[in-house]
């Protein structure tokens, strides 16, 4: 059962230098044709943040803050804690799913495991994530929110995020190569998940019925996003809700297993589906 997982993980470790080189090259190629270059790493998400804050913060909420266990938090700040991770999640899901179909021909020239392609896409997107996360720290300091012991959990939740995205991309990239309609369906699903995840609405204070909240918790991004936000605000520890933590890791392990198994089964025939 663990043979497939072990093989895929060994490939990531063995070719880790190649992953970094390919990711670095893709980042440079992505922005070299633009006048503003890497500034778009900040400018593009900043424009989206401004739109969401105007519509949801000033429009729907009327500028009202979000009530947390530790008091009221400005909606703009609360929204940033969920939206910045989402700007990493969404392109990693969509781009990771398309990574094999997009660059499988490169493998025939360079001779490296195809399982590196989804991982490379994750590292490409992580550059923007780290940049935006650094800006979030600055904004938090401006609002008077400083590091606490709970911030240690960010390492855990960001680790959860990377492992889940890798597991999902491994499975999804295989499906997207075999069935091209899947990529279009996935893009629509990600647009829907933006509003089904606790990014622009408060799961505790926006009058969400318990039965709906329990259904929404089946979304693994719910676990990660609320965990990151709780870490910043010092609300709770991840081990306080072990049932939900166990559910997340079982879900992620299942994705990793089926992703590795499916990938290894079909990867020698990927060229036939192009």
Strand count: 2
Averaging pLDDT over every residue, what do you get?
87
SSE order:
HHHEEHHHHHHH
Overall helicity: over 70%
Oligomer: single chain
Beta-strand share of residues: under 5%
- The structural domain count equals 1
**Count of individual helical segments:** 10
Low-confidence stretches: none
Explain this structure to me?
The chain has 274 residues and is mostly helical. It has one domain (3-273). It is built from 10 helices and 2 strands. It has helices at residues 3-14, 16-31, 40-60, 75-110, 116-142, 153-178, 181-196, 210-216, 220-233, 242-266; strands at residues 66-68, 71-73. A hairpin with a 2-residue loop joins β1 and β2. α4 (75-110) packs across α9. The longest helix has 36 residues, at 75-110. It is globular and about 55 Å long. The two termini are 30 Å apart. The mean pLDDT is 87.
């Amino acid at each position: 059962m663990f043979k497939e997982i072990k093989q895929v993980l060994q490939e990531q470790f063995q070719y880790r230098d190649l992953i970094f080189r390919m990711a670095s090259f893709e980042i440079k190629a992505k922005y070299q044709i633009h006048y503003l270059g890497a500034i778009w790493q900040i400018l593009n998400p900043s424009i989206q943040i401004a739109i969401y804050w105007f519509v949801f913060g000033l429009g729907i909420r009327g500028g009202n803050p979000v009530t947390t266990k530790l008091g009221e938090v400005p909606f703009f700040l609360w929204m940033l804690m969920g939206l910045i991770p989402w700007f990493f999640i969404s392109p990693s899901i969509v781009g990771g799913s398309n990574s094999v179909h997009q660059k499988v021909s490169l493998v025939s020239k360079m001779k490296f495991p195809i399982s590196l392609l989804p991982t490379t896409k994750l590292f490409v997107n992580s550059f923007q994530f780290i940049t935006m996360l650094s800006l979030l720290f600055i904004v938090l300091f401006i609002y008077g929110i400083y590091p606490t012991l709970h911030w240690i959990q960010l390492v855990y939740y960001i680790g959860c995020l990377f492992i889940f995205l890798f597991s999902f991309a491994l499975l999804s990239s295989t499906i997207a190569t075999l069935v091209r309609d899947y990529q279009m369906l996935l893009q629509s699903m990600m647009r829907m998940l933006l509003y089904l995840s606790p990014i622009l609405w408060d799961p505790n204070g926006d009058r969400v019925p318990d039965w709906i909240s329990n259904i929404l918790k089946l979304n693994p991004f719910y676990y990660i996003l609320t965990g990151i936000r709780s870490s910043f605000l010092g609300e709770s520890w991840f081990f306080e809700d072990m049932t939900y933590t166990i559910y997340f890791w079982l879900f992620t392990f299942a994705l990793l297993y089926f992703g590795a198994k499916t990938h290894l089964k079909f990867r020698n025939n990927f060229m036939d589906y192009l």
